[in-house]
Amino acid sequence: MRHARASNRVAGRSAPGYRARVRVRAFTDTDWPPVWQIMHEVVRGQETFPYDPEMTDERARQMWIETPPGLTVVAVDRERVLGTAKMGPNRGGPGAHVSTASFMVAAAERGRGVGTALLRFALDWAKGEGYAAMQFNAVVESNRSAVELYRRHGFGVIGTVPRAFAHPVLGRVGLHLMYHEF
Amino acid sequence: MRHARASNRVAGRSAPGYRARVRVRAFTDTDWPPVWQIMHEVVRGQETFPYDPEMTDERARQMWIETPPGLTVVAVDRERVLGTAKMGPNRGGPGAHVSTASFMVAAAERGRGVGTALLRFALDWAKGEGYAAMQFNAVVESNRSAVELYRRHGFGVIGTVPRAFAHPVLGRVGLHLMYHEF
What beta strand segments (E) does chain B contain? Predict the structure, then answer.
């Protein structure tokens, strides 16, 4: 039910023509090849995620595919996978009331609302699961489209760790800790 | 060599009588029973670590015992384990030049310089390994002895996530992101 509701809402906001017809649904095993292709592309680019660019398929799968209480989803246009997200508790025990999420969109599909659809899905999911807030631990400050997307959805920058991310073109840039209390 | 040097330095700073005679050395498998006892005590207290208080022995071991490029150590008085620390890269790939570390001291041994010895060891280690900085991602703001210890050793608070830690007595308190550039 929650999946269907989020999908409809996103579809209803999409302008025809230049935005993707995005549906967000739970990841299934048959989604792994396109999800890995997106991850591989994003991680090797080294512009947005502090992940090992030499990460193997197996390690990527361990890292990205969540089990309950977390969830991994894909954004699809019919059955074509445009992007993926994972979400769940940011920490354990006394920190488990704050959620986190991560998002990756295929390079060819950026700027068409896929990230927005995934973020809105994750926020709806986290609120529905009873989390008090969502936290992003390491948003690369030069990734302006992500920073602006998060700001538009209620996130603020708690602080920025200076020079914590070695961008291949820009050199060492900051990592924002971003946070949104529900 | 690095172990011996760090130990000597700590011993040289200890005031006789009321401070522990602390030596810091690499963890070995036979240290696991006392290390797990300390972890279990710390985690069940739920006052300082956002870890699951029901964590099993096996999960704790997976989480705490680092493999290269990370390192896990114990602080000992002769062969008695007083505390433990783990250290390594805070993130992967483009974030791997910033280190992190975590520290746990047995309740009965607190206030005797064990945490100080572990922190100094970790800082020496991280500098020796060529890291540019050390970051602590989630320091419970009510854990004043830890916050003050870190401040005395050059760490500052980059930001505080409000209400992100459910303290059993104080309710929801903040988590500091603390950082020290070398």
Answer: 23-26, 71-77, 80-89, 98-105, 133-140, 156-167, 171-181
